[in-house]
Design a protein that fits this description.
Structural class: alpha/beta
Helix content: 25-40%
Bound molecules: 1-O-alpha-D-glucopyranosyl-D-fructose
Low-confidence stretches: none
Mean pLDDT: 95
Number of helices: 23
Largest sheet: 8 strands, parallel
Length: about 675
């Protein structure tokens, strides 16, 4: 990709992979369509024209910052045709367990490893192919395990290493794989490395972090080294009096960022990966892994970008200068099993589509690498995960969670037509060397049924209908489904009443920012209630009443829901429940290759409320998935009314579709 200059045109900027992703992100943030930039008038403008026209808004450094960023990212994704490579992680349905809230076995009110093990039959019966655990390593839990103090020890509340080994074996015995959560962009400030760095900032561990000299005055309220902002509120710098240094922390002030430019840091992470792969772990989800490479010298953040993207300085690390190189190195030296490496403690047994279990499979040569990549768009996502790149295997593209013009904190109604357009666009832009991670919930976001229905989520009929539509898209779309615990029983947001009901450091940081900006306590809480991550983190509802079978003690984060019919026990007993719908979908996907490797062909793309696509089977057969994305009747756009209805909320395929109707048909 030729280097852009001020003489380049906007069309050249949009043709640059990173340029397109940035433009799409800015347009999304502004709630504008890409026509704003692709129309011939704007597309033909030179960058220098735009700079002159918008100089007051953009400020003096914006264009230079952008041109430098693009020049540092010259790679262009390749788009390959033909069949995609086969891999276990393209066939498996993943299930994210938030261990703290999944199942408590010792009555302390906090979920633990033995509790998860006691629920493995439930996961295997659901048809889960791989379990992903949010962090269970030693941690002071300021950020609920995403602040690790020892990567080789198990968090006290979660149990022992023996419990972990039992859980790994338990998954493998049932034909399931297991991946953990690698938080390697930062550690806890209670990690030994950081304690050594503070004790001797100029010693060997000082360079494990980003320490900077400074004189901020007694209370640390002075001027930090740069204007970067933290995701959890306030400056991205924390003053460490004992070391007389500032330390960079993009997240909580107890989560100092690791300096990945230090080869010793990279070697430490490689060894941690090898340690856990030897124990039988099948790979890792990698926390904010696109942030690990920061621009040399940590320059000031551009004010305009900061205002636009909220987090001043983000342009200097969200796709850093050495990101691709570090990921390739980590894959080669961390995730690739050395020829002379000890075989893993166990491997998953082969599991056939009908659930029968065979012998343990041979170890995979490379552990799975799933990148959590906030802010990354389709084009850079392809550069990070295309099969020939030797970096990650899949990435989470978060644009699916937030329709244009919104952030997680916005009180928006999620229009499922946005999800339709997101997947129609994404699938159209990738080749057989790309693969999509499909998700709509996780431990950081409110529940989708509440986003779609708002207060109507309390209506059990609508709640169930929307959950089935979302589940159908997640399981039958082309890619790897990631179900977040509770999604399969239509979990909804909680009726929290005040900040004292919450536990999330991100929510408290945001609340403080809002108060600092003049919001009242009630006004600030109202915004927090919309987007708090604690909606997703209340205990799993296994059975009605009390603490819903999660614990015999007092839950660390009490749930507020009292509705009937939406616990695992009730849903297992109800043939038409959301849970049984997920089981049937997952079974269908396991039995028919069309739903994994089969190509996808959209029907009536762009049509409102009618979402339909074919999944093509290798034997020439076709599967038609049709959904009404709305609460009103909608005309079926597909005249091809033949085919056997295999799964549906109705058995009749008429010209009109009922509200939230789903029909999956097989056309031989
Ligand atoms: O999340 C990073 C991330 O993108 C979101 O958490 C977002 O930045 C945050 O909610 C602030 O708006 C990962 C983990 O999923 C999250 O649980 C951790 O808190 C975070 O990284 C730091 O490790």
């Amino acid at each position: 990709m030729a280097e852009l200059t001020r003489k380049s045109r906007i069309r050249d900027f949009y043709a640059h992979p990173l340029g397109r992703d940035i433009a799409d992100k800015v347009l999304m943030t502004m709630g504008r369509s890409s026509r704003w930039i692709t129309n011939p008038v704007v597309a033909n403008l030179r960058i220098s024209h735009v700079e002159r026209l918008a100089s007051r808004m953009l400020g003096p450094s914006f264009v230079d910052t952008l041109l430098e960023l693009l020049a540092a990212n010259p790679d262009v994704p390749t788009t390959r045709g033909g069949p995609t490579e086969r891999a276990w992680w393209k066939e498996a349905v993943f299930y994210q367990v938030y261990p703290r809230s999944f199942q408590d076995s010792d009555g302390d009110g906090v979920g633990d490893l033995a509790g998860i093990t006691s629920r493995l039959d439930y996961l295997a019966d659901l048809g889960v192919g791989c379990v992903w655990l949010s962090p269970v390593f030693a941690s002071p839990n300021h950020d609920m395990g995403y602040d690790v103090s020892d990567y080789r020890a198990i968090m006290e509340e979660m149990g022992s290493m023996a419990d972990m080994e039992e859980l790994i074996r338990g998954c493998h015995e049932r034909g399931m794989r297991i991946i953990l959560d690698l938080v390697a962009n930062h550690t806890s400030s209670e990690h030994e490395w950081f304690e050594r760095a503070v004790a001797d900032p100029d010693g060997p561990y000082g360079d494990y972090y980003f320490l900077r000299r400074g004189e901020p005055g007694e209370d640390g309220s002075g001027t930090p080294p740069t204007n970067w902002k933290s995701f959890f509120g306030g400056s991205a710098w924390r003053w460490i009096p004992e070391a007389r240094r500032w330390v960079l922390r993009l997240f909580a002030d107890t989560q100092p960022d690791l300096n990945w430019d230090n080869p010793r840091v990279r070697a430490e992470i490689e060894e941690i990966v090898q340690f856990w792969m030897a124990k039988g772990i099948d790979g890792f989800r990698m926390d904010v892994i696109n942030y690990i490479s920061k621009k040399e010298g940590l320059p000031e953040g551009d004010p305009f970008i900061g205002d636009l993207m909220w987090f001043t300085g983000i342009e200097h690390y969200y796709v850093g200068p050495h990101l691709h190189a570090y990921l390739r190195e980590l894959r080669r030296r961390g995730f690739t099993r050395a020829a002379d490496a000890e075989p893993p403690a166990s491997t998953a047994r082969r599991r056939e589509a009908d659930g029968t279990l065979g012998e343990p499979l041979p170890p995979e040569p490379v552990g799975l690498m799933v990148g959590e990549t906030p802010g990354i768009g389709v084009e850079v996502g392809r550069l990070l995960s295309a099969s020939e790149r030797g970096e990650l295997d899949m990435i989470f593209n978060f644009d699916v969670l937030t329709p244009p013009g919104n952030t997680r904190w916005s009180d928006f109604t999620y229009d499922l037509n946005y999800m339709k357009s997101y997947f129609e666009d994404y699938q159209d832009r990738i080749g057989s060397n790309d693969w999509i991670a499909l998700f709509i919930e996780n431990h950081d976001n409110p529940r989708i049924v509440s986003r779609v229905l708002g207060a109507d989520a309390h209506n059990p009929v609508l709640r169930e209908a929307v959950a089935k539509v979302v589940g159908t898209i997640m399981i039958t779309m082309r890619g790897t489904p990631f179900i977040f615990q509770g999604q399969e029983i239509a979990a909804m947001n909680q009726d929290f009443t005040s900040m004292s009901d919450l536990r999330d450091v991100d929510s408290f940081g945001r609340h403080q920012d809002l108060r600092d900006e003049g919001a009242t306590v009630g006004g600030a809480f109202a915004e927090i209630l919309v987007g708090t991550r604690d909606h997703a983190r209340v205990p799993m509802r296994w059975e009605p009443g009390g603490t819903t079978g999660f614990t015999t003690g007092e839950p660390w984060l009490p749930g507020r829901e009292v509705s009937r019919g939406f616990t695992v026990a009730e849903q297992l007993a109800e043939p038409d429940s959301v849970l049984n719908w997920y089981k049937r979908l997952i079974q269908l996907r396991a039995e028919h290759e069309a739903f994994t490797y089969g190509e996808i062909e959209f029907v009536a793309p762009g049509a409102r409320d009618y979402f339909a696509y074919y999944r093509l089977a290798p034997d020439g057969g076709r599967w038609l998935v049709e959904m009404n994305l709305s609460g009103s009747a909608v005309a079926r756009r597909n005249t091809e009314l033949r085919g056997e209805v295999v799964l549906g909320t109705t058995t009749e395929r008429g010209q009109m579709m009922d509200p939230y109707e789903v029909v999956i048909s097989h056309l031989p």
